Amino acid sequence: MLDDRLQVYQLSVVLIGNFNPIIIQPFWLASKKLIREKEAEKAKVQIIHKEIVRFELDWAFIEVKKDRFEIRTTQLPYFEPLRDLVAGIFKLLTETPISMMGINHSKSFVLRDEDHHYEIGNKLVNLNLWEESLDDPRLFHLQIIEHKRKDQYPGMYVVIIEPPKQELNIKYGVEIKMNDHYELGQGQTGRNGEILDILEKNWKYSSDRANEIIENIRTKLNF
Amino acid sequence: MSTFFNLTDGWSKATSKGITEIEQIDEFVKAYNDEDHCPPLTPWSIGRDSNVVNSDFERIPQAILYRQSSMYDNYFSKTQRWLGHVTSINDASFSAVLQDLTAGGTNELAEFDLEEVSDEDVELLQKGAAFYWSIGYSHENGQISKKSIIRFRRIPAFNQADYDEILDRVSELKNSLIWD
To answer: Are the Cβ atoms of B53 and A49 closer than 8 angstroms?
Structure first.
């Protein structure tokens, strides 16, 4: 069933490791058939330099620094292609050490009206506690951390609740972000595809868990 | 270090397409992969030395300033997604079995016109090939339109390690079978 209140769903994959940014550029991706030739031609390249590479495809933004790789999209049809692209890149760059990964889900919702907006903040944090000290207190940003992951992987899970991005022009809304963060296990070097293995095996789990958390909180907050 | 979003919207320097000597990059990647340990990342060398590249970068005459487009200028809402596998190909269409990635449930069968396949994906169309099909509302610079998108799956060809892994799995499976 499609969701009327959901406005934008953004997905990103962030990898921490030791990268050589200059390799990962549009024409190299096309030459390896990981993206279409036309996509490489139309890519909006902001910078290609040994320290940083940053460009946009029609459907994704990619930034590579020496210690950080990030790809993100707000275009739902490309969520799986995004995963395939990350997996494809690092299957070719097999020796790249990757020590951490975040699969980040972010959903922005439209709320009914101002009262509903206030009510959600008040349910998440008891704003009455602040009324003596602050004039008209409001919730701005909330971060909840699960220190130990539910599955067998080292890492953590972080949920952030905050107002949606201004560019979306949502008058009353809320953005829920989830950082599904993975780290290497003891004795792992990150050079044997350990993190990529998690990406491929846990992709559906990550998405299902993000959606389950969001639906649970939406039910409790009545939106 | 955080693996969370790093939104870096803002003003950036735009350059030309940069390095395009794919063969040289390939040579570099090969050497990079062959190293027992990750080589020093600077200075990099793929046929030019870092000083030249740095000065090239600084002297690019057509460098312009433009605002990085916001991810929120173009997005999809209310989108249904499927993973498809091609089962047969005819003169003007192909058939596929579809797995619903949005709502789950049982597999579905569908037929698509070949005209719906993008030119550069035609070479990927073959029996058994995987593709993604989505129908949703595209928001592009404020314009909303309903779109159907077919994109064939792009993954690198199998290498020796992949074959070895498959053989290991087959072996494990074979050993786990109990014959009556």
So the answer is: yes
Structure tokens at A121: 């903040």
Q: Rounded to an integer, what distance in angstroms lies between the CA atom of residue A142 and that of residue A221?
A: 15
Q: Do A6 and B77 touch (CB under 8 A)?
A: yes
The C-alpha atoms of residue B138 and residue B89 are separated, in whole angstroms, by: 29
Residues 6+ apart with CB under 8 A from A172: A110, A111, A112, A113, A114, A116, A117
CB B56 within 8 A of CB B46: no
Classify each residue of A175-195 as buried b or exposed e, where b means 16 or more C-beta atoms within 10 Å of its C-beta: bbbbbbbbbbeeeeebbebbb
Q: What is residue B22's predicted lDDT score, i.e. its pLDDT?
A: 53
Cα–Cα dist A47/B15, whole Å:
6
pLDDT of A165 higher than 70: yes
**A-interface mutation test, from B1, B2, B3, B78, most A Cβ less than 10 A away:** B3
Scored b (16 or more CB within 10 A) or e, B52-76 reads: ebeeebeeeeeeeeeebebbbebbb
Determine the distance in angstroms separating the CA of A154 from the nearest CA of chain B, rounded to an integer: 14
Specify whether the CB–CB gap between B89 and A20 falls below 8 A.
Answer: no
Kindly report the pTM of this predicted structure.
Answer: 0.81
pLDDT digits (tens, 9 = 90+) for B38-92: 443 333 333 333 333 333 333 332 223 334 567 778 899 889 999 999 999 999 9
- Residue A19, exposed/middle/buried by CB under 10 A (0-12, 13-18, 19+)? buried
Structure tokens at A127: 């704003």
Q: What is the pLDDT of residue B104?
A: 84
Which pLDDT tens digit goes with each residue over A137-162? 999 999 999 998 988 899 999 999 99
Which alpha helices (DSSP H) does B93-180 contain, by range? 160-176
What's the start-to-end Cα distance of chain A, in Å? 16
User: Whose CA is closest to A107, among A219, A6, A205, A213?
Assistant: A6
ipTM reported for the complex surpasses 0.90: no
The reply to whether B101 touches chain A by the CB within 8 Å rule is yes
% chain B with pLDDT above 90:
37
Residue B116, CB-side half-sphere exposure with 13 Å CA sphere: 18
